[in-house]
Amino acid sequence: MGKFHVVYFGSNVVPVALIKPILDEIGADMTIRRPTNDAEVVEMGKDANGIIMHGSVPLTREIISQLKRTKVVCRTGVGVDRMDLKAAKDHGLIICNAAGCNSIEVSEQAIGLLIAISRKLVRMNQYVRDGKWRRHTAELHAYRGRVYRIQGRTMGIVGLGHVGKQVAPRAQGMKLKVQTYDPYLNPKIAQDVGVKMVSFDELVKTSDFISLHAPLTKQTRKMFGAAQFKAMKNTAYLINCARGGLVDSDALYDALVAVELAGAALDVTDPEPLPADHKLLTLPNVIVTCHTAANSDESYIDCQSHAAREVANVLSGKGPTTEIKDPWLLLEEAQDEGFGGV
């Protein structure tokens, strides 16, 4: 038995060879568990000094109150919307995430989706696979629809945090004008990356591309609904690589049918996974990927090792580097419920 006991929740293939040497430094052993309900989270985690959490395992107030030995929980991802952060604060439980470890991947996906949806790449690929390609026929152009030059247009980034700050220079590299709405942002940060700060309403009305990079909270849930879609340019595109709950899916469908915006590219959805018969998937101007924007071989290594290092730092008394301590987040109860897959 080690000096500390760490439990790893989730993941089909746990990178033990990557994590174990980090935990060995503080004399900690690790047990791998895959809970499927709240009771199992408690039972499997009750003896843990620290928890590494991969996948969508909830931490409700009731669960937290029973993890009496646990000092720290660190996610191998960024989102903490399945965790009751207020309860964690009340019980003195340190919650960390892997902030910054996958921001490059998410930003690359956001830009990739921007190009794919606006240049109609998926639609044109399907046209070829369907055997319809007959050079530049009127039918081809009608099938594709109108296409506009990306350069010189305006991108609005909602949330200029770790990911947003990676999206901005990539958009600027494509010669897009970039603006942001972020009510918690130090204006100097936006100034340093050459991004204009605007109100939420202005961003919605004036952006040609809107890319979402905000956390899911009570305030941000369905922040894009019927009113926002009506206010958007009918040539604008919505890109969401953050959390599906930021967008009202029914309102998005209605707005796309009414041509209130040009299209949507979604790595995340509500509900998630999106059922194969969901009405959004009947629309030709919607691209949906599988909540995989954060994924790469490199980000997997970075996120896993970071989570292990955070747990080791806390247990050894060094303190965390990516603790969730934003005052506006610490007031949050869990925004998503249930197990989203481990």
Question: What are the key terms here?
Answer:
elongated; 13 helices; 2 domains; Rossmann fold; 35% helix; five-stranded parallel sheet; alpha/beta; 342 residues; seven-stranded parallel sheet
Write up what this structure looks like.
This protein is an alpha/beta fold and 342 residues long. The protein folds into two domains: 4-101 and 297-315, Rossmann fold (3-Layer(aba) Sandwich), CATH 3.40.50.720; 103-288, NAD(P)-binding Rossmann-like Domain (Rossmann fold), CATH 3.40.50.720. It has 13 helices and twelve strands. The chain has helices at 16-24, 38-45, 61-66, 85-90, 103-118, 121-129, 138-144, 164-173, 187-192, 200-206, 226-231, 249-257, 297-315, and strands spanning 4-9, 28-33, 50-53, 72-75, 94-96, 154-158, 177-181, 196-197, 209-212, 237-240, 263-266, 286-288. The chain has a seven-stranded parallel sheet with strand order 8-7-6-9-10-11-12, with helices on both faces. A five-stranded parallel sheet has the order 2-1-3-4-5. Strand 10 (237-240), helix 12 (249-257) and strand 11 (263-266) form a beta-alpha-beta unit. Helix 1 (16-24) packs parallel to helix 13. The longest helix is centred in the C-terminal third of the chain and has 19 residues, at 297-315. The two termini are 26 Å apart. 44% of the residues are buried. The mean pLDDT is 94.
- What's the level 1 CATH class of the largest domain? Alpha Beta
Secondary structure: helix percent: 25-40%
Q: Which stretches of 5+ consecutive residues score pLDDT under 50?
A: none
- How much beta, percentage-wise? 5-15%
Main β-sheet, spatial strand arrangement = 8-7-6-9-10-11-12
The CATH homologous superfamily of the largest domain is called NAD(P)-binding Rossmann-like Domain
- Specify Rg, calculated over alpha carbons: 22 Å
- How many separate structural domains? 2
Number of DSSP helices? Answer: 13
User: How many strand units?
Assistant: 12
Question: How would the global form be characterised?
Answer: elongated
Terminal Cα span: 26 Å
Rounded mean pLDDT is: 94
Series of secondary-structure elements, N-terminal to C-terminal:
EHEHEHEHEHHHEHEHEHEHEHEEH
Q: According to CATH, what is the topology of the largest domain?
A: Rossmann fold
The CATH architecture term of the largest domain is: 3-Layer(aba) Sandwich
Q: What structural class do you assign from the helix and strand content?
A: alpha/beta
Largest sheet: 7 strands, parallel
